[in-house]
Here is the input.
Amino acid sequence: MSADLIDLASLQSLFRPQSVAIVGASTDPEKIGGKPLAFLKEHAFAGAIYPINPKAETVQGVKAYAGIGDLPGPVDMAICAVPGGAAEQTVQACADQGVRSVIMFSAGFAEVSDEGRLAQERMAGIARDAGMRLMGPNCMGVANFVDGMIASFHPAYGAKPPYQGKIGLVSQSGAFGGMSCFMAQKRGIPFRHVLTTGNEADVEASDCLAFLANDPDTEVIMLYLEGVRNGPKLLTALDMARQNNKKVVAIKLGRTEAGAAAAESHTAALAGSDQVIDAIFRQYGVYRANNIEEFFDLGCAASLGPVPVNDRVGLITVSGGVGVLMADDAAERGLDVAPLPEDTQARMKELVPFAGVRNPLDVTGQVLNDSSLYEKAIRLVLDETDFGSIVCFQGALGTKPEELETVMVMLRSLVKDYPDRLIIVAGLFDPDGQRAVEALGIPVVHEPTHGTRIIAALHGFGRAGPAPGPEAPEEIEAASLPDGVLNEVRALSVLADAGVPVVPVRHVHSAEEAADAAADIGGSVVMKIVSADLQHKSEVGGVRLNISGGEAAAAAYDEIVAGVAEKAPDAQLDGCLVAPMVGGGTEAILGVSRDPVFGPVVMFGLGGIFVEVLKDVAFRVAPFDETEARKMIRDIRGYPVLQGVRGQPPADEDALAQALVSLSRFAAANADTIESMEANPFLVRAAGQGAMALDALIIKRDGEME
Here is the structure.
């Protein structure tokens, strides 16, 4: 994607300003206009601070100014804590003074009325004309704990973090951003940055994501999205995060129609297709959380332990039942719960003869008699296997002070001796105990299966890694969509020119031509009516299968044309196509649809019941490479069918992947002219025998089709 969509340099004045003005600064540190000044002082912000208050000479002990035009020098960022009616005037005054960026707390704009939307657009226009960045309106601002630059009125930002964290949070909801900060503080895992965007008149969540993606000390980005306005900009920011090895954990609202409607009314944003969002997150290595608990578990864990070097996991437990629970969850998430080596199992049996030793390793309640057994079991697993991660379920051990100290001694030793292994502890801790364990870089979960969930997610980040970004559409050389109406014959020709293999066809306009075509092709043929007015030809008798010989083809031509003319008298007919009957493979469907936010999206699925009933399909935003195409193929639940079942040979996955890549490139290059297109059925033959589209439909943006 093109980095030109995001101006990183202009964001510095907003997120790392050297001087801050507060328009509407209050002498009361508990008011909206007073909190930012109080926070800047408490966090020892090193830059210049300019309170704007025409009624006071000083505000909270800092020299005040009557207006923005009275400041002694240039200002990087102005906080506007003024009533909504004065917001537009304030933005204009900041623009006139050369302020580089503005954070607008004021509400009552696009989120409430058309009149408010127009006022918001005027403010955005003022900022744009002045080259000034505008965050909000209707936002709770930002917190940069690294520089002590707290430009917000949310009380969560008042507490100083115990150390500089590794997490950056981007939230379209100000209240959610503040709540998240409170939750992180409770866990003793501070944020580096909290960036809330509100109505996004100018600066969007994608801009914030890009800023954090390019911050070398931010390792984890937590992203809370209600809607997406600019799809290409989000893709650009996600690609930056992927290239820079950032771990991105996201919540995206609007999974259901009701949720999407609520999100749109709250943010005046377009929620977009949830399936497309899912596909984008998979494409860019983003973990999508289903709820706030999962969001925080994953975000915090990603900032603590190392990424697992492989998918092999060891499960050590004091409860056999919990061990089975974790094993089931790990296997369902695609982790390898490999049996322990036989020698390791034998050594564990020597320690606890009645232990379950395969994996999970059940130390049993014997640890109550000999607490050293737990550490010995863990070390056996870490010493004698190549498991990249372990989950240690210890139940209620550690709830008492004396037990907690024993656990801490053990964990300190393990972290020191095995720094490259991901260790997760599942069990009950009081808040102080959990913070102490996580301070060692060990995630703590109360629900044991949340430990296996974390491992699967972190291993996913490791697999994603940096990758070549997709080509920009303007860089792709691909066939163009021809002018005029595209019937099936022309649609197949377009696909062939785009590099998608198609069945060879002959376009005939008489019974004699049909007979000649069938004789030339040989064997059995299929014949179909050609008409730009008919999308479903079989419904009007426009398709005949298994026709053999020229005489039969000639008769079929006359019957097809006459029958369709009777059933669809208003349809414009253009003869028939003749093609060889092709079988011996697996039917799939390849398609393209135009998402209103993200542009052309490619779909893949198996044919028949898989797509019609099970909706078993995968999506990717165009364009993408062969590696992504293969991931897409493996995403569908029916993938084992392509691998060969009931004696059938495996399908030609190479040909299928290349067809998807070619289709994605064509879709991206013609994004402005294609509304949708489909190759259905797309026959994938046995490995080494290729694949081909047997039918094609193309609908242009102007409504022309087939």
In short: Confidence is low (pLDDT under 50) at residues 263-272.
